[in-house]
Amino acid sequence: xxxxxxxxxxxxxxxxxxxxxxxxxxxxxxxxxxxxxxxxxxxxxxxxxxxxxxxxxxxxxxxxxxxxxxxxxxxxxxxxxxxxxxxxxxxxxxxxxxxxxxxxxxxxxxxxxxxxxxxxxxxxxxxxxxxxxxxxxxxxxxxxxxxxxxxxxxxxxxxxxxxxxxxxxxxxxxxxxxxxxxxxxxxxxxxxxxxxxxxxxxxxxxxxxxxxxxxxxxxxxxxxxxxxxxxxxxxxxxxxxxxxxxxxxxxxxxxxxxxxxxxxxxxxxxxxxxxxxx
Length: 278
Prior knowledge:
The chain has a single domain (2-6, 15-276), classed as Rossmann fold. Helix 2 crosses helix 10. The protein is built from ten helices and ten strands. The protein is α/β, with parallel strands linked by helices and 278 residues long. The strands form three sheets. It has a six-stranded parallel β-sheet, sandwiched between helices. Strands 1-2 form a two-stranded antiparallel sheet. A two-stranded antiparallel sheet has the order 7-8. Helix 2 (47-55) links the parallel strand 3 (32-36) and strand 4.
């Protein structure tokens, strides 16, 4: 099994970093970590985190989603395509007998929540199962909700606009350095900016029809200094799910929207902490 990293240049390309042989027996006893990127983000953004997780014995599968296609003609059905990509990745591991932890970042919480439905220990028809959902400063919402339904204001800042002359249906992030990467070292920030992909407007107008946090153990990694999905916004999401009678395990980092870049070691430790209780 390999860590799949993506997009070190504007042209999509794959790099496979094999797990060290010293980690192989250890990794086989741990759940595979499937990382679901947020809007505009690609596997390359999560490379530092993937390497940190790999170094403590985890196999990591970081996904490239259809919605981050940066060509001018973004497909209209990226919501369904992304759900299928995520679900197929999960089942490729569970069918091989491996348990899976799904780590979702930002908007990845929307599609990831639906994609993992029916794949938990109680529902799975395979020998492996999804044993933990981890929302990493991610949208953990209920059926029928969209990002727009949460409103706009201090707790829910507007971070994107329709501003691409090549594709009037595409959303582009407003000041991503400010909203996503304000605590990230400059060299990492520039590379992260260069690697940002696309996001169709239609994608973020969708809503999950079902959510896996109702059936699979769930954890939330709060990023206290997040300017895109604010601390108060994250707390509101957690409180709303807890109000449904669902237990949500919580850990916090004093990080921006991108802890996988600003503090990948601490982020890996937090994820490992959640999984020790899986």
